[in-house]
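User: Quick one: structure for sequence A, then sequence B.

Assistant: Sequence A:
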Amino acid sequence: MKIQWYPGHMTKARRAMEDSIKLIDMIIELVDARLPISSRNPDIDQLGKQKSRMIILNKSDLADERMNQAWEDWFVSQGYYVVRLDSRSGSGMKKVQQTIQKACQEKIERDRRRGILNRPVRAMVAGIPNVGKSTFINSLAKKGCVKTGNKPGVTKGNQWIRLNKTVELLDTPGILWPKFEDEEVGIRLALVGSINDDVLNLTELAGHGISFLKKKYPIALSQRYPDLPDSDDTFVLLESIAAQRKCLKKGGEPDLDKAASIFLDEFRSGKLGRITLEFPEVSETKPQNPADDGDFRKEDNLPASDTKEEG
């Protein structure tokens, strides 16, 4: 399944981000907790050299909780400050401002030694489309200062938002990269809605999602769609879902397009349960970053329904 989607406005957005880097002290990068690596744009690491870095594991309420902990430990081991968050409910938001101050403590003390007082930390909020940046900022600011939406590409240009006397945020448009080197990355992004559905074959995409769940989260799949046939043919399974959801065309033929849309909506909204699409590599090394406050346990790398790791 080939997925390439890089509208012209993303090139403009990347250039704007490049121009803004020199104005900020740190980068707050939002990733989707269900696919923390696939939902990262590698350009941000290149652009953000020499800046303090925070990873927000957003939509963590939709991800497998054991995987949330494993991913938090993994990112901490890579030198990032990490906060798990559900922007919609505001859960985890208090920790964000505390972590901003902690991540920029060296900069704050340097300013104080130079006699520069009360200069706010300037943080760029970055991430790919539909990862929840605008909702995050609105929740953090406790007011609707940024447009929000459930479709990729709502934020069109850079916007400065003053949170308080100590923090200013720069909101940036979501940027995908021009080409997915790994086809699976594009599929995962499409599954969670980070790529516009209008350019996708939803029936084929739903087949990928069903196949993943059957392998990694079979109980979640069977609980949502009882009496699925014992088959590895995703076409057959999607037909069964169509029948269960009464997605039928005239003459009783299953409407696979409608069934695919229902499956994707239920997957994305969490109705199938808390699902993580990719898992961190097993690490025997305990993180040394002082931000770490937990052990990285090998057994936490896997969803409960599986016995070995893939992805």
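Sequence B:
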Amino acid sequence: MPMETTKDWITIALVIFMFLSLVAVYGERIITKKGIGARTIQVIGVLLVIPLIGILALHKVLETQTTATLIGALTGYLLSGVGSYEPSGKNSKKQNNAGGVGKAG
């Protein structure tokens, strides 16, 4: 069965995007020699879930209302921690100051 429909090409593009985004995130972590933390896991989740919702909606596996609910929930999840986010630089300064208090000399 030849793949000729636009829906099939969009699906293939989304699957390729999912794969390449995983490779890019893990490659960046390896190149910078950093570990995989909570923010990285969030990014990976978003990069996989958004295309997956698109594929399922495109193939009518999800109804319109379900798709809208999932996108709304994902948006709420993404924006929920924005106000309380503190870059790691602030935490390391506090730890350095606290660590130097008891030292003599």
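The radius of gyration is 21 Å. The mean pLDDT is 81.

User: Thanks, that's what I needed.
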